Amino acid sequence: MVSFNESSTIPTLLRNVVENIHPPETTFLIHKKGDEWENISFAQTLAKADAVAAFFLEKGIAKGDRMGLMIENGPDYVYYDQGIQQIGAINVSIYPTLSEQEVEYIINDSGIRAILVGNPFLYKKVLKIAGNCKMLEFIIPVFNDFTKITLPEDLNTAIFSFESVLSDGYSLIKKYQYQITTRRNEVLPKDISSLIYTSGTTGTPKGVMLSHSNFVENVKVCLQQIPVIDKTETFLSFLPLSHVFERTATYHVCCAQGCKIAYAQSLELLAKNMAEVRPTVMSCVPRLLERIHDKAIQSGTSAGGMKSKIFIWALEIGKRYREKMEAGKSPGLVLAAEQFLADKLVFSKIKEKTGGRLKFMISGGAALPKTVGEFFGNLGIKILEGFGLTETSPVMSVTEYHRQVYGTVGRVIPGIEIGIQNVDTKEILNIQTHESFNPEYISEEGEIIVRGHCVMQGYFNKPAETAEAIDKHNWFHTGDIGRFYKGNLQITDRLKNMIVNAYGKNVYPTPVENIYLQSLKIEQIFLIGDKREYLTAIIIPNKEAMTGKFHLSESFFEDPEAFISNPEILNWIKEDIKKLSEGLAKFERIKQFLLKRNPFSMDAGEITPTMKIKRKVVEKIYAAPINELYSSAVESE
């Protein structure tokens, strides 16, 4: 059984599994090796973690030393992380997509002594900057042919393959076994477990200090809130472990509960991997669910005729059935029979593509559009939403399994307080806890603030920034705007995203953008209008839908011109913009737009690793076409 106590830490969670939940030979990790899925037991995982620990003890790694990881999800991440954490070292995971300059900054700011790198591209990136990183002593590639890559002449950093780290470590375990056990027992809940650098839409990345207690308490209360997670689950992991959401919601939950973790090969192979692994639980982001929704709708309706009619009928039946069940009412014999038929004809085929065993998916990282959540509910696929930030370990609220309120991010987790603060006056309008939950309660809107066990220890080496984020009453200011709706937290937008038009009207872009994202023709949308008379937008069209409609070749998307000027394509998008604008206030409607040929990219610095658009960066990059749009535009009805 899961066992939490006052001395629980990340490494003791996994040890508890083999002592109280599963026999050591039970499968823990699953990954694809060649064409076959390989099972790795808890015993094998712990043995490799001990080898990593022994190797680094031999190299003089001390408690509190920072150890880097820049690697894709997989078993090697777990071996390294468990090995360093049990000797009191600190995990500093770096997004593989960051630039050389950003990686160099993080290595130097945190003082990383060793870094695990996942592939030749990342290895070359680290080699280029290693000479500027004076505290970096060891580079550890996980791939075998790293010796073929030419080293810089001025490199003073030692290089060991991860394979040699494990083999040398195995030979040292006997020598260091007592010290490994002693060091593991000396790790305290208050000690820092990880530094996670915020990607940030503006400013320099900050190292968020999260303790073992931050993580353990977050896992404990999430399992209380979602008690249906048991030791038989298989999680499919594809979101980056360098981000706190996947780290907690998948990796740490599985370490505590004894669940299996299967690692997807890539985002491109995710659909294939889902069918092969047949997961019961997955953490995901709204964009993935939006894409599944869009493809399902397009597939179900594009053929027209009887197939389309059956699909639309099934969704209506699913909606009526869901609403009855959520209201605690009996669906009745007729509706139950119709639901059975709808599931057999339509829903089961969609579920098969997920492997057919999903209990639920956990959506985080951004607010999920209400219509998308309802769509999955109509199919009988439960989507639980959570909310939090890197600075909150991350979960502050999460949907209860038995009580769904679409368009919200769930109930406050046990042990913390969430307040809503007036943005202008700074008055705290109300405070909610897990215990104060009232399914009828609706609050005013304001900035979301939080205090309690989930809040970080602070920003590494940045006391001024820490004091700015956490006030004298220990409230952490999230910068998110929201309210409580039917007792659940509801996110409106980011405080920094707020657009104030030339007439003083406040517009939070996310809810407006979500209205327009209901169009199957639109992939991404970025609202513009701060200090302007009206709103405009940069829109990225749905590539698949546009290609099919206008029979475009790949060369169309390779055109160096950033924006599409084809009148037919522009009018095609305008049709949906005009239709969807009808449900918005006049000052919230898009008057003109630019149609961007390709999505915003991380390479261009337009989005963060967590897929948030960098508002100021995008407005600066495209300042000329945006200004031209305003200067030449004539308001359209």
UniProtKB/TrEMBL annotation:
**Which residues belong to any copy of the AMP-dependent synthetase/ligase domain?**
23-460
Transcription regulation as a keyword of this entry, yes or no, is no
**GO MF, any single term:** long-chain fatty acid-CoA ligase activity
Pfam families, per database record: AMP-binding, AMP-binding_C_3
Q: Which InterPro entries match?
A: AMP-binding_CS (IPR020845), AMP-dep_synth/lig_dom (IPR000873), ANL_N_sf (IPR042099)
PROSITE patterns per the UniProt record, alphabetical? AMP_BINDING (PS00455)
**Record's GO cellular component terms:** membrane
What keywords are annotated for this sequence in UniProt?
ATP-binding, Nucleotide-binding
The protein's name is AMP-binding protein
Its ancestry begins with:
Bacteria, Pseudomonadati, Bacteroidota, Sphingobacteriia, Sphingobacteriales
